[in-house]
Amino acid sequence: MIGVVTRDAPAGAMRAPAAPLGPTAMIIRLIAAGAGGALTGTAVLTGWWAVAVIGTGVVASAVHDIRPARRAMVGTAAGCVHATVTTLWASQFNASAAAALILIQAAGWGLAALAVSMRARWPWPLAPALAISEWARTHWPLGGYPLAQLWLTQADGPLAALAPLLGPFAITAAIVLLATAGIAALQRRPAAIRVLAASLITVGAAQLAPIPSPVAPMEVAAVQGGDRRGVPAMRNDPGPLLERQIDLTRSLDTDVDLVVWPESALAVHGAMTTGDRRLLQELADGFDGVLIAGVVERFDLPDGAGWFRNAAVASDETGTLDRYDKQLPVPFGERVPARRFVELVVDLSLVPRDMVAGSGPPILRTEHADVGIAISYENLFPRVARQAVLQGADILAVPTLASSYVTDEIPTQQLAAARMRARETGRDLAIVGSTGPTALIRADGTLAAQAPTDTPHVAQARLQTRSGTTLYTRYGDALPLAAAALVLSMTARRPAPRPLHAGLPAEPEHLAARRQERRP
């Protein structure tokens, strides 16, 4: 362990507590935690799943066997570096918002580190604690902020097999548990060896989990109009993108059943008009299927403020079939918390209006299929796709928009999240953005087709509608969260070990027995 001073104890005796850390040892812990956070952040952005395991192992070792205040400090340092690596994109819009998002994530890591009690012989409690922390962050604060979470690193890893059984937060726990158990197993701790063996067997068995049964094939096309990246939505002319979307859609064959457009592909002032609906109807009639288009309706007030609605609209040759309005806005991107106070100190010219949240289940019902919808940011929330499938969705679609971002932090996480949503729910999925990510994903998380970034392109493949539900769809996060809370509470109730005096030999057994005999 990093910076931990221990000594061997006689058989049956408790280990001595760690010696107090001096400034140098504490600095080493903080540096190690930062390095671990940098590794986990890099894994989020690259999908290098093994790097996430290594990084969490380094962080867990750094927070182990030190007092609570220092545990929280070291854990927060790890979370701060992890969040900084993965949240730099936000600084191009607003430095204050980026700082707030980094602090939210860092606080979650710091609180999770507190669970690694000095009662624990190895730092396994970080696994359930970090899983609970990530789950909580999908609900509060700011309505939830699920970016940069550890489960995003596993889209190509073996731990993704746990998704249809226990969901993403169990994957986070598994990452940390494997890392800590692996380190402790090298130190020949019997309990860690047993946990490591059981974890590997469980992950291996999860590879055999069945996928919900296919019902019917469906030819799906994801139409990526292409655009310049790095241009904020408020400063971008939506006209050229719409023209490219129309041209690409008109070039499709008539055997396409479902076409998905990006978020905001059709941007209008005020509510959609009859002309807007007729355009979508005529395009759908051209390929004799269903068109799902991302639509933004902007409502401006005379003083320059206003609001907008972000929707997905399904149309076929008969007209508009159904509509879903986005319910979860991006904090500081589509909604500014406490706007009146924030605008006194921060320039909000790139976010002049807030999104009005919709209501109703995230599903579009059509004659061809019931399509579950998660609009962009909602794709990062596992509960949205799960709710869609519980409402009867037999295929999923994610219209998104990443053209505002110069770098790949957001597109990479959006694609990883879409692949995880497909595995969790056992549903094929189409994700499409104007500049990417655009891909057609099978229910096992593999890619059936993918478009190159930025350029106009149509990704087309034969997917399946499916029936039936996975274990995770049926029970959600209840099982893994209950298990995590239970093991943490059991650890908290364990009596503190009676420490041996550090640096001194244990009392000989014959002297201890004689003292016991003298007691009345």
* Overall pLDDT metric: 90
Number of strands: 14
Q: What's the domain count?
A: 2
Strand content: 15-25%
Q: Distance N terminus to C terminus?
A: 43 Å
Q: Spans with pLDDT under 50 lasting ≥5 residues?
A: 1-14, 498-504
Elements, N to C (H/E): HHHHHHHHEHEEHEEEHEEEHEHEEEEHHH
Given this structure, which CATH class of the largest domain is correct?
Alpha Beta
* Name of the CATH superfamily of the largest domain: Carbon-nitrogen hydrolase
Biggest sheet, in brief? 8 strands, mixed
Radius of gyration: 26 Å
Helix content: 40-55%
Say what the CATH topology of the largest domain is.
Nitrilase/N-carbamoyl-D-aminoacid amidohydrolase
Tell me the overall shape.
Answer: globular
Q: Please report the number of helical segments.
A: 16
Q: How does CATH name the architecture of the largest domain? A: 4-Layer Sandwich
Overview of the molecule:
It contains 16 helices and 14 strands. The model is unreliable at 1-14 and 498-504 (pLDDT under 50). Strands 1, 2, 3, 4, 5, 6, 7 and 14 form an eight-stranded mixed β-sheet that branches. It has a six-stranded mixed β-sheet with strand order 8-9-10-11-12-13, with helices on one face. The protein has helices at 23-46, 49-63, 68-87, 95-113, 126-137, 163-166, 168-186, 190-206, 238-250, 274-287, 339-342, 382-390, 409-425, 471-475, 478-493, 509-518, and strands spanning 214-224, 258-260, 266-269, 290-300, 306-316, 319-325, 354-355, 363-365, 370-373, 395-399, 429-432, 439-441, 447-450, 457-466. The chain is of the alpha/beta class. It is 42% helix and 16% strand. Helix 1 (23-46) runs parallel beside helix 3 (68-87). The chain is globular and about 75 Å long. It starts with 22 loop residues before the first helix and ends with a helix. It has two domains: 23-209; 214-469, Nitrilase/N-carbamoyl-D-aminoacid amidohydrolase.
